[in-house]
Specification:
Layout (H helix, E strand, L loop, with lengths): L1 H19 L7 H24 L6
Length: about 55
């Protein structure tokens, strides 16, 4: 029983430490991937709008 109590205390302490390390800055390669994906999505959206004439009356 005593071991179970100390384990639960250790678990709560470690989860508290993990909460502070949960967020961190993006790596440069992650920023590049996000920018590339977003740019490609916007470019394809523009191309498809003009290709299929979405705004023609």
């Amino acid at each position: 029983m005593a071991n179970e109590k100390t384990n639960s205390v250790k678990t709560s302490e470690s989860s508290g430490a993990m909460a502070t390390d949960e967020w961190y800055d993006l790596l440069p390669v992650e920023k590049k991937l996000i920018l590339t994906s977003l740019s490609l999505g916007i470019a394809l959206l523009v191309i498809f709008v003009f290709a299929f004439g979405a705004f023609h009356h």
